[in-house]
Amino acid sequence: MQYLHAALTETLRLYPAVPVDGRCTETDDTLLDGFKLKKGDGVYYMAYAMGRMSYIWGDDAEDFRPDRWLRNGIFKPESPFKFIAFNASPRTCLGKDLAYRQMKIVSATLVHFFRFKLENDAENVTYRTMLALHIKGGLNIHALPRTGFVKV
């Protein structure tokens, strides 16, 4: 399950469920670089863009590479300030572990029972950045049952 955890994390790095997020300042504040914020200012970050920044992830930032999360076959997480899909610090998602568990159960079940094939291999998949990440026009796939297993 180490590789599955890495593959799911790599997917969330490139395709975070919440691609843009932000906060409002409650008091005047100064960021570490000296930028001054006034009470009520909005501060936003783009997890979708951050997951593709070579400055953060290296020259292969746009490549899907689950092994970037593995050290000797064991999953090793990055700082939540680098991998921001579940937020960080006091704002870390309380459901993170449950979300991973659910993703693993669903993934294992689907892969066990089905093979998947894109309806149109030549179609270019694009995304709509909204509150949640959407595939523009949907993603049409065929789920083909796997054969050859013993029914219980």
UniProtKB/TrEMBL annotation:
Keywords: Heme, Iron, Metal-binding, Oxidoreductase. Heme binds at residue 93. Signal peptide: none annotated. Its cofactor is heme. InterPro entries: Cyt_P450, Cyt_P450_E_grp-IV, Cyt_P450_sf. GO terms for molecular function: metal ion binding; oxidoreductase activity. Belongs to the cytochrome P450 family. This is Cytochrome. It comes from Forsythia ovata.
